[in-house]
Amino acid sequence: MTKRNKKIGFFDSGLGGLYVARAVHRALPQYDYVYMGDTLNVPYGGRSLEAIYDLSLKAVKFLIEEQDCDLVVIACNTASVMALSRLQKEFLPKFHPDKRILGVIVPTLESATELGATQIGLIATEFTVRSMIYEEEIEKITPQAQIFGQPTPLLVPLIENQGDKYLKMVLEDYLEPLLKKKPDSLILGCTHYIAIKDIVREMTKHSVRILSQDEIIPPKLKDYLLRHTEIEENLSLNGSFKIMATDVSPSFITNVEKLMTTDLSGDLKIETAKY
Fold first, then answer.
1. What span, in angstroms and rounded, lies between the C-alpha atoms of 146 and 137?
2. What number does CATH give the domain 7-103+215-272?
């Protein structure tokens, strides 16, 4: 009989992936989760390719080797762009062939096409937009679909640092050229942007379908586990949720408390990840 003693890990450069992890926890509360935010190095968007890979590798190794995660979700679009494929092809086969690492980009595009999207706007970090990864992946799924990318580099710092009063002004500037192209859908291509999905819906007057990864990943992950029983059968079933960060700053604590207080029973504890 399989011993259930493994967890599901989530990794992001900062706070954004916690929205995805929270949504998955709500949808699949029976499993045990570890969230790891690399707050010491946030944001990843302006870093070199090699730096992003190295940071992602360290975080994934930590979750697999130190936190007993059999499945890790890279809940960061920038890291999914640069590190996911390489981690799957180089790191896992050599060191952990029985583990799995998933990203957020392909599930997002699958959901978009399942909803019939063909003219798709994208707001994301400059790195993600310039990588053309969304264009490359949509070509594999639905060649007739088009992606219109708009870099939005100021949004992550504003979200991470309580810059709410500036958001609408900055968003209006970013969205104006994108909406002129009349997209039928708009992908929020950074997990941080989940925090502002309601603002985006309001500003677009609900005329565009907003695709937010906290709404997409939970059903996709549930389906994945149903199809991959060799992973699911190893997962422990205590309903726990651990939050870790490489730099537990006062602003990170404030943001986590605001986000997670209603989801976690008892005192909220955030541990420092050392690796």
1. 11
2. 3.40.50.1860
Instruction: For the chain, list residues with pLDDT below 50.
Output: none
Residue 163: other Cβ atoms inside 10 A: 13
| The pLDDT of residue 266 | 62
- Which two tokens mark 255? 């943001």
Tokens linked to 211? 């695709």
Would you kindly state where each structural domain of the chain is located, as residue ranges?
7-103+215-272, 105-213
Q: Is 23 exposed, middle or buried (0-12, 13-18, 19+ CB in 10 A)?
A: buried
What's the first-to-final CA gap in the chain, in angstroms? 33
pLDDT recorded at residue 2: 62
Which DSSP string corresponds to 24-42? HHHHSTTS-EEEEE-TTS-
The catalytic residues are: 76, 190
Helix (H, G, I), strand (E, B) or coil at 257: helix
**CA 226 and chain centroid, separation:** 21
pTM confidence score:
0.92
Find the helix or strand (DSSP H, E) in which 185 lies: strand 185-188
What pLDDT, on the 0 to 100 scale, is given for residue 243?
Answer: 96
Residue 80 CA to residue 86 CA, distance in Å, equals 10
Q: For domain 105-213, give the CATH number.
A: 3.40.50.1860
146 DSSP β-pair partners = 119
> Which tens digits make up the pLDDT trace of 185-242?
999 999 989 999 999 999 998 889 999 999 999 999 999 999 999 999 999 999 999 9
Q: How far is CA 48 from the centre of its chain?
A: 20
